[in-house]
Amino acid sequence: QRVIAPIVRRMLNLMGWIWPRNRIAALERRLLLAGRPGQLTTSDFIGIKGWILLLLGASTALGALLFGYQRSPQLILLWILLCIIGFFLPDLWLSRRIRQRQEEITRALPDTLDMMVVGVEAGLSFENAMIEITNKWQHALSRELLQVQRDIGIGLSRRQALLDLNERTGVPDVAQFVSAINQADELGISIARVLTVQAEEMRIKRRQRAQEAANRAPIKMLFPMVFLIFPALFAILLGPGV
């Protein structure tokens, strides 16, 4: 912690200094959408990309020297391919992390809204209803609602805290929910009524997504059947005759 970690941090920051500045903002946005895993900063992530690239490239060159491979176009092409994979591998991991987190938030939103409706209709305020959710559940959306509570606690308005929630998630359903709550505040509409409507719409959307997934299942099953099951079946049925 006192020696190795600071050295590694400085090496990661060294890679971050040479990164184009016009891409740092986009990377910061992606890390925010991913929930900032491991409290990674942009310099950390860029440094990880650079060091993976260097390690893969160096290990490939070292392996070629140790095993006595002669320099050839195939070896150079393999080295270039491994360097490209090592450079873009963290980006693929980050994209997968963003997609999983957004799917988790989308799945949790209907039940969360139902819980908020129950709390508000029982006499709780909007903020106290969020507290009940964060106390009962532990998922990506509950952690984001906890951050909303902290933002409100340090002095942000509820409108701005919800807008920041939309910015951190990037989920269309959350954007719809935030827009509805902010409009209700501006127009003086009952929060319980707005939450009830939003909860019903989110349940309908969840049902529609389930139907779409069920409709796509036969198409997804077609490829393994054609390329894996049918050839084996033909070999069993037609092989003895041939």
Q: How many H/I helical runs?
A: 9
- Radius of gyration using CA atoms only: 26 Å
Largest sheet data: none
Structural class per helix/strand content?
mainly alpha
The CA-CA distance between the termini, in Å, is 69 Å
Secondary-structure map:
Elements: H1 4-17, H2 24-33, H3 42-66, H4 73-121, H5 126-136, H6 140-153, H7 158-169, H8 172-187, H9 191-238
Helix pairs in contact: 1-3, 3-4, 4-5, 4-9, 5-6, 6-7, 7-8, 8-9
Structure summary:
The protein is mainly α and 242 residues long. The protein is built from nine helices and no strands.
What report would you give on this structure?
This protein is mainly α and 242 residues long. Helices cover 82% and strands 0% of the residues. It is built from nine helices and no strands. Helix 5 (126-136) packs across helix 6 and helix 6 (140-153) runs antiparallel to helix 7 (158-169). The relative contact order is 0.07. The model has no long low-confidence stretch (mean pLDDT 85).
